[in-house]
Amino acid sequence: MRRVVTSESLWWSASLAVFLLAAAVFVLHVTPTPGALLTRRVFDDGASARRARNAQFADPNVWIRRDISYLRTGSPLVGAAARDTLFDIYRANSADGPAPTIVWIHGGGWVSGDKADPAHYLSRLAGAGFTVVSLNYSLAPQRHYPLAIRQLNEAMSHPSGMATRILGWGVNNTLWAYSGSRAVPSPALDQMSTIRHLTPGFPPTWIGAGNADPLTATQSIPLAAALREQGVAVSTLIFDTSTPEQVGHEFQFELGTPAGQRALASSIEFAHRVTR
């Protein structure tokens, strides 16, 4: 039986589509939550695929102790879930005695990410002679700035052992979700922006960036330049257009690529040099 599509049914379908689009635009305009959760889903899906793709590169000679709390019971800094304030430790099986420690704080635009996402990469750092501590912290939109900063400061003391436009929208939305304010200019952004608080006392820094990452031109290169203006020692591995391969965001974790292997070797060399 053939279904007849009338002009009236087409009008109703078009009207419904316009209504849904208008409703979506309205919701995204009044609250950052849907956008933040969408960003989280995209980031988490990407992290999951990367974990599966790179698991083969984990160092088998490293032990991992997972899910240790870095806050005392009853601390006012506890997050929305128990996972918020846990950390993992990576150390080579052959390690004997103290070793330089790398504290890993994952990215994710303040709305996504987990301490275990780069486990394969962290195991390789541990295998190179470091103790690696990977931290979780509270995420937006469930929790706001500066809770995560206060949590990480507490953890550091270890008391208990298409692109560019879409990216720009994502950054603005996650900042809104994280700070709890849509104000522009944002006082929270002024406080959180590393480049605005540099001093000659900033520690030696390693920066890796890809030629297909829109953050390279807007963040990585300006940060390296600003650090050098302060007299800070900076080591960079920044791929430009002379590199034939497309090197994207978080290329460092892709250990099956020449760029990823080069970044791993460069960062390990840097870490050994500054911890001797």
From TrEMBL:
Residues 88-157 form the BD-FAE-like domain. InterPro entries: AB_hydrolase_fold, BD-FAE-like_dom, GDXG_lipolytic_enzyme. Pfam families: BD-FAE (PF20434). Coiled coil: none annotated. The chain crosses the membrane at residues 12-31. The keyword Transmembrane applies. Keywords: Hydrolase, Membrane, Transmembrane, Transmembrane helix. PANTHER family: AB HYDROLASE SUPERFAMILY PROTEIN C4A8.06C (PTHR48081), ALPHA_BETA HYDROLASE (PTHR48081:SF13). This is BD-FAE-like domain-containing protein.
